[in-house]
Amino acid sequence: MQNHDGDVQEQEKDDDELDLPTYLLVEKFISFPVCLLSMIGAAMVMSAVFRSKQNRANMQQRIMGFMSISDFMLPFMRVTGYLWLPKDQGSGYIGNEITCDVQGFLNVLWFSSTVGYNGILALYYLLVIRYNFKPHRLQKIDKYLYLAPYANAIFWAILAVALNTVNPPEAYYATNICSVQRDIDYALENGFDDPKYLFNAR
């Protein structure tokens, strides 16, 4: 019990050093509402695409619909950060190391998916506008356009957790989410070309 009290006091000391009250105000009153608006926008896009037979038949619309899934989940992960962060990292958190790794996996998954679908959308425009691809030609690669972003995202998400790179303790408060974080203090001491820093290892 005494050790736990000591940890709490040490955490409170770190909080003061990081000027967390100011940062938390920004988090709560700016970041969260923006995330909620982003979720609403993504949900509206998904509804417009997947509830319409005409839009579902359009490849560009389908790509936008699938991209909106990850666009919705990313801010959702941030808004629900208190559910995933280990409870010993501060008041209001109710998670543990396992939930933190799970959220880290999901964050990398959804972020990589968003990046991937943006790339697929750009590829679609290139094929249609520059190379004048017709729908029957696009049908040949249709399924790969949807699978590729998630296959790539799953690879990076597994790698992030396997390398134990999800959110070093000193970064919990800085992000309010469990995700891949680089240890800047370590890099300043050992060099930015150090393998531990380059691969985000704890």
Structure description:
The protein has 202 residues and is mostly helical. The protein has one domain (2-198): Rhopdopsin 7-helix transmembrane proteins. It contains 11 helices and no strands. It has helices at residues 2-17, 20-50, 53-56, 59-79, 81-84, 97-130, 135-138, 142-162, 172-175, 184-190, 195-198. Helix 6 (97-130) runs antiparallel to helix 8. Mean pLDDT is 79; it is low at 12-19 and 198-202.
**What distance lies between the first and last C-alpha atoms, to the nearest angstrom?**
27 Å
- What is the CATH C-level name? Mainly Alpha
Number of strands: 0
Question: What fold name stands as the CATH topology?
Answer: Rhopdopsin 7-helix transmembrane proteins
Count of alpha/pi helices: 11
